[in-house]
Amino acid sequence: MNTTTRGWINGFLGVLIFSGSLPATRMAVMDLDPLFLTVCRAAIAGVLAGVLLLIFKQQRPVRSDIVPLLLIAFCVVVGFPLLTALALQYVTSAHAIIYIGLLPLSTAIFGVLRGSERPRPTFWILSALGSSLVAGFALTQGAASSPIGEGLMLASIIVCGYGYAEGARLSRRLGGWQVISWALVMSLPVMSLLSLYYMPVSWASISGSALLSLAYVSLFSMLIGFVFWYRGLAQGGIAAVGQLQLLQPFFGLLLSALVLHESICWPIFIVNIGVILCVAIARRFAVPAASS
Known about the structure:
Layout: H1 3-18, H2 21-28, H3 34-55, H4 63-87, H5 93-100, H6 103-115, H7 121-140, H8 147-174, H9 176-198, H10 208-236, H11 238-242, H12 248-259, H13 267-282
Protein backbone atom coordinates (compact mmCIF):
# COMPACT_ATOMS: atom_id res chain seq x y z
CA MET A 1 0.00 0.00 0.00
CA ASN A 2 1.55 3.30 -1.08
CA THR A 3 1.67 6.52 0.95
CA THR A 4 -1.11 8.21 -1.01
CA THR A 5 -3.54 5.34 -0.41
CA ARG A 6 -2.69 5.32 3.29
CA GLY A 7 -3.37 9.04 3.30
CA TRP A 8 -6.87 8.53 1.88
CA ILE A 9 -7.62 5.77 4.40
CA ASN A 10 -6.44 7.89 7.35
CA GLY A 11 -8.36 10.87 6.00
CA PHE A 12 -11.53 8.81 5.67
CA LEU A 13 -11.24 7.61 9.27
CA GLY A 14 -10.79 11.21 10.38
CA VAL A 15 -13.93 12.24 8.48
CA LEU A 16 -15.95 9.44 10.09
CA ILE A 17 -14.89 10.64 13.54
CA PHE A 18 -15.55 14.30 12.76
CA SER A 19 -19.00 13.44 11.42
CA GLY A 20 -20.27 13.04 14.95
CA SER A 21 -18.96 16.43 16.08
CA LEU A 22 -21.89 18.67 15.14
CA PRO A 23 -24.64 16.30 16.34
CA ALA A 24 -22.74 15.87 19.62
CA THR A 25 -22.22 19.62 19.92
CA ARG A 26 -25.89 20.25 19.22
CA MET A 27 -26.85 17.84 21.99
CA ALA A 28 -24.31 19.35 24.40
CA VAL A 29 -25.38 22.99 23.95
CA MET A 30 -28.92 22.06 24.96
CA ASP A 31 -27.63 21.96 28.55
CA LEU A 32 -24.16 23.52 28.44
CA ASP A 33 -23.06 27.04 27.62
CA PRO A 34 -21.24 27.15 24.24
CA LEU A 35 -18.27 28.99 25.76
CA PHE A 36 -17.90 26.40 28.51
CA LEU A 37 -18.24 23.56 26.00
CA THR A 38 -15.50 25.06 23.83
CA VAL A 39 -12.94 25.63 26.56
CA CYS A 40 -13.75 22.48 28.51
CA ARG A 41 -13.38 20.15 25.52
CA ALA A 42 -10.03 21.79 24.75
CA ALA A 43 -8.87 21.48 28.36
CA ILE A 44 -9.81 17.78 28.60
CA ALA A 45 -8.14 17.01 25.27
CA GLY A 46 -5.12 19.09 26.29
CA VAL A 47 -4.56 17.01 29.42
CA LEU A 48 -4.79 13.78 27.43
CA ALA A 49 -2.47 15.17 24.74
CA GLY A 50 0.08 16.17 27.38
CA VAL A 51 0.03 12.66 28.82
CA LEU A 52 0.63 11.15 25.36
CA LEU A 53 3.55 13.48 24.69
CA LEU A 54 5.13 12.54 28.01
CA ILE A 55 4.58 8.80 27.59
CA PHE A 56 6.12 8.74 24.12
CA LYS A 57 8.82 11.29 25.07
CA GLN A 58 8.25 13.53 22.08
CA GLN A 59 10.79 16.22 21.29
CA ARG A 60 9.61 19.76 21.89
CA PRO A 61 8.79 21.94 18.88
CA VAL A 62 11.52 24.31 17.73
CA ARG A 63 11.09 28.07 17.96
CA SER A 64 9.88 28.39 14.36
CA ASP A 65 7.01 26.00 15.15
CA ILE A 66 5.54 28.12 17.96
CA VAL A 67 3.60 30.63 15.85
CA PRO A 68 2.12 27.97 13.50
CA LEU A 69 1.08 25.87 16.50
CA LEU A 70 -0.56 28.88 18.14
CA LEU A 71 -2.44 29.60 14.91
CA ILE A 72 -3.57 25.96 14.71
CA ALA A 73 -4.75 26.15 18.32
CA PHE A 74 -6.63 29.37 17.60
CA CYS A 75 -8.33 27.86 14.53
CA VAL A 76 -9.18 24.25 15.39
CA VAL A 77 -8.97 24.17 19.19
CA VAL A 78 -10.89 27.39 19.86
CA GLY A 79 -12.20 29.02 16.66
CA PHE A 80 -14.07 26.23 14.89
CA PRO A 81 -15.58 24.62 18.03
CA LEU A 82 -16.72 27.98 19.41
CA LEU A 83 -18.17 29.29 16.16
CA THR A 84 -20.08 26.07 15.48
CA ALA A 85 -21.33 25.84 19.07
CA LEU A 86 -22.66 29.40 18.81
CA ALA A 87 -24.17 28.69 15.38
CA LEU A 88 -25.99 25.63 16.68
CA GLN A 89 -28.00 27.87 18.99
CA TYR A 90 -29.65 29.28 15.85
CA VAL A 91 -29.70 26.37 13.37
CA THR A 92 -30.14 22.61 13.60
CA SER A 93 -27.16 20.29 13.33
CA ALA A 94 -28.62 18.87 10.09
CA HIS A 95 -28.57 22.36 8.57
CA ALA A 96 -25.11 23.22 9.96
CA ILE A 97 -23.65 19.96 8.67
CA ILE A 98 -24.44 21.01 5.10
CA TYR A 99 -21.92 23.82 5.47
CA ILE A 100 -19.19 21.33 6.27
CA GLY A 101 -19.34 20.49 2.58
CA LEU A 102 -17.64 23.84 1.95
CA LEU A 103 -14.60 22.82 3.99
CA PRO A 104 -12.78 20.98 1.16
CA LEU A 105 -12.68 24.11 -0.98
CA SER A 106 -11.52 26.20 1.98
CA THR A 107 -8.86 23.62 2.87
CA ALA A 108 -7.69 23.30 -0.74
CA ILE A 109 -7.31 27.07 -1.11
CA PHE A 110 -5.26 27.33 2.06
CA GLY A 111 -3.35 24.21 0.99
CA VAL A 112 -2.19 26.13 -2.07
CA LEU A 113 -1.37 29.24 -0.06
CA ARG A 114 0.36 27.48 2.85
CA GLY A 115 1.35 24.09 1.45
CA SER A 116 2.49 25.10 -2.05
CA GLU A 117 0.22 22.50 -3.65
CA ARG A 118 -0.82 22.94 -7.28
CA PRO A 119 -3.78 20.73 -8.27
CA ARG A 120 -4.85 20.71 -11.92
CA PRO A 121 -7.63 23.04 -13.16
CA THR A 122 -10.09 20.15 -13.45
CA PHE A 123 -9.66 19.53 -9.72
CA TRP A 124 -10.75 23.08 -8.93
CA ILE A 125 -13.78 22.77 -11.20
CA LEU A 126 -14.90 19.59 -9.46
CA SER A 127 -14.17 21.03 -6.02
CA ALA A 128 -16.18 24.15 -6.82
CA LEU A 129 -19.00 22.00 -8.22
CA GLY A 130 -19.18 19.89 -5.07
CA SER A 131 -19.14 22.98 -2.87
CA SER A 132 -21.78 24.65 -5.05
CA LEU A 133 -24.07 21.66 -4.64
CA VAL A 134 -23.75 21.96 -0.89
CA ALA A 135 -24.13 25.74 -0.77
CA GLY A 136 -27.02 25.71 -3.22
CA PHE A 137 -28.89 23.13 -1.19
CA ALA A 138 -28.36 25.15 2.00
CA LEU A 139 -29.80 28.25 0.35
CA THR A 140 -32.88 26.41 -0.89
CA GLN A 141 -33.53 25.15 2.63
CA GLY A 142 -34.01 28.63 4.06
CA ALA A 143 -30.48 29.80 4.83
CA ALA A 144 -31.71 33.37 5.25
CA SER A 145 -33.94 32.36 8.15
CA SER A 146 -31.09 32.76 10.60
CA PRO A 147 -28.39 35.08 9.25
CA ILE A 148 -26.48 34.92 12.52
CA GLY A 149 -26.25 31.12 12.43
CA GLU A 150 -25.32 31.11 8.75
CA GLY A 151 -22.65 33.77 9.26
CA LEU A 152 -21.13 31.89 12.17
CA MET A 153 -21.00 28.66 10.15
CA LEU A 154 -19.32 30.38 7.19
CA ALA A 155 -16.76 31.96 9.52
CA SER A 156 -16.07 28.56 11.06
CA ILE A 157 -15.40 27.07 7.62
CA ILE A 158 -12.77 29.72 6.81
CA VAL A 159 -11.07 29.36 10.18
CA CYS A 160 -11.10 25.56 10.06
CA GLY A 161 -9.79 25.40 6.48
CA TYR A 162 -6.74 27.41 7.47
CA GLY A 163 -6.18 25.32 10.59
CA TYR A 164 -6.34 22.09 8.60
CA ALA A 165 -3.89 23.31 5.96
CA GLU A 166 -1.44 24.72 8.50
CA GLY A 167 -1.62 21.57 10.62
CA ALA A 168 -1.09 19.30 7.62
CA ARG A 169 1.95 21.33 6.53
CA LEU A 170 3.50 21.02 9.98
CA SER A 171 2.54 17.34 10.26
CA ARG A 172 4.95 16.43 7.47
CA ARG A 173 7.79 17.17 9.87
CA LEU A 174 6.38 16.77 13.38
CA GLY A 175 3.80 14.03 12.78
CA GLY A 176 0.00 14.21 12.77
CA TRP A 177 -0.81 13.43 16.40
CA GLN A 178 2.14 15.47 17.64
CA VAL A 179 0.89 18.64 15.93
CA ILE A 180 -2.59 18.60 17.43
CA SER A 181 -1.18 17.45 20.78
CA TRP A 182 1.28 20.35 21.00
CA ALA A 183 -1.43 22.80 19.90
CA LEU A 184 -3.71 21.50 22.66
CA VAL A 185 -0.96 21.61 25.29
CA MET A 186 -0.03 25.17 24.38
CA SER A 187 -3.63 26.26 24.83
CA LEU A 188 -4.16 24.20 28.01
CA PRO A 189 -3.32 26.88 30.64
CA VAL A 190 -5.81 29.38 29.19
CA MET A 191 -8.46 26.75 28.48
CA SER A 192 -8.20 25.35 32.02
CA LEU A 193 -8.68 28.76 33.62
CA LEU A 194 -11.60 29.58 31.35
CA SER A 195 -13.17 26.18 32.08
CA LEU A 196 -13.18 26.98 35.79
CA TYR A 197 -14.61 30.43 35.11
CA TYR A 198 -17.46 29.26 32.87
CA MET A 199 -18.17 26.05 34.77
CA PRO A 200 -21.89 25.54 35.50
CA VAL A 201 -22.94 26.53 39.00
CA SER A 202 -24.78 23.22 39.33
CA TRP A 203 -24.33 19.97 37.43
CA ALA A 204 -27.64 18.58 38.64
CA SER A 205 -29.54 19.94 35.63
CA ILE A 206 -26.98 18.66 33.08
CA SER A 207 -28.31 15.57 31.33
CA GLY A 208 -26.32 12.41 30.80
CA SER A 209 -26.56 12.84 27.03
CA ALA A 210 -24.95 16.29 27.30
CA LEU A 211 -22.09 14.85 29.35
CA LEU A 212 -21.59 12.01 26.88
CA SER A 213 -21.54 14.56 24.06
CA LEU A 214 -18.93 16.57 25.94
CA ALA A 215 -16.85 13.41 26.28
CA TYR A 216 -17.16 12.68 22.56
CA VAL A 217 -16.13 16.12 21.33
CA SER A 218 -13.28 16.22 23.87
CA LEU A 219 -11.78 12.81 23.11
CA PHE A 220 -12.71 12.08 19.50
CA SER A 221 -13.42 15.43 17.83
CA MET A 222 -10.62 17.31 19.56
CA LEU A 223 -7.85 14.70 19.61
CA ILE A 224 -8.33 11.25 18.04
CA GLY A 225 -9.94 12.54 14.86
CA PHE A 226 -7.03 14.90 14.23
CA VAL A 227 -4.52 12.05 14.62
CA PHE A 228 -5.97 10.40 11.51
CA TRP A 229 -6.91 13.61 9.70
CA TYR A 230 -3.58 15.42 9.85
CA ARG A 231 -1.74 12.21 8.98
CA GLY A 232 -4.03 11.68 6.00
CA LEU A 233 -3.58 15.25 4.73
CA ALA A 234 0.20 15.01 5.08
CA GLN A 235 0.38 11.64 3.30
CA GLY A 236 -2.15 12.12 0.52
CA GLY A 237 -2.01 15.88 -0.05
CA ILE A 238 -3.98 18.68 1.57
CA ALA A 239 -6.15 19.53 -1.43
CA ALA A 240 -6.74 15.92 -2.50
CA VAL A 241 -7.57 14.25 0.82
CA GLY A 242 -9.40 17.39 1.91
CA GLN A 243 -12.10 16.52 -0.64
CA LEU A 244 -13.17 13.69 1.66
CA GLN A 245 -14.81 16.34 3.82
CA LEU A 246 -17.53 16.51 1.19
CA LEU A 247 -18.66 13.14 2.54
CA GLN A 248 -18.90 14.40 6.12
CA PRO A 249 -22.37 15.95 5.72
CA PHE A 250 -23.76 12.60 4.59
CA PHE A 251 -22.50 10.74 7.67
CA GLY A 252 -23.36 13.64 9.94
CA LEU A 253 -26.92 13.85 8.68
CA LEU A 254 -27.45 10.17 9.32
CA LEU A 255 -26.24 10.65 12.88
CA SER A 256 -28.49 13.70 13.33
CA ALA A 257 -31.48 11.61 12.26
CA LEU A 258 -30.56 8.63 14.43
CA VAL A 259 -29.42 10.46 17.57
CA LEU A 260 -31.28 13.79 17.52
CA HIS A 261 -34.30 12.59 15.51
CA GLU A 262 -33.96 15.57 13.18
CA SER A 263 -35.90 15.28 9.95
CA ILE A 264 -33.96 14.78 6.74
CA CYS A 265 -35.56 15.48 3.37
CA TRP A 266 -34.86 13.28 0.35
CA PRO A 267 -33.02 16.01 -1.70
CA ILE A 268 -30.19 15.76 0.83
CA PHE A 269 -29.36 12.29 -0.42
CA ILE A 270 -29.41 13.41 -4.06
CA VAL A 271 -27.01 16.24 -3.21
CA ASN A 272 -24.71 13.85 -1.41
CA ILE A 273 -24.65 11.42 -4.36
CA GLY A 274 -23.49 14.31 -6.54
CA VAL A 275 -20.91 15.24 -3.93
CA ILE A 276 -19.57 11.68 -3.76
CA LEU A 277 -19.12 11.65 -7.54
CA CYS A 278 -17.21 14.94 -7.34
CA VAL A 279 -14.89 13.48 -4.69
CA ALA A 280 -14.25 10.29 -6.65
CA ILE A 281 -13.42 12.11 -9.89
CA ALA A 282 -11.49 14.96 -8.22
CA ARG A 283 -9.02 12.50 -6.71
CA ARG A 284 -7.68 11.73 -10.20
CA PHE A 285 -6.89 15.39 -10.85
CA ALA A 286 -5.40 16.36 -7.48
CA VAL A 287 -1.85 15.62 -8.65
CA PRO A 288 -0.05 18.70 -10.03
CA ALA A 289 0.07 18.87 -13.82
CA ALA A 290 3.86 18.94 -13.77
CA SER A 291 4.02 15.49 -12.20
CA SER A 292 1.38 13.87 -14.36
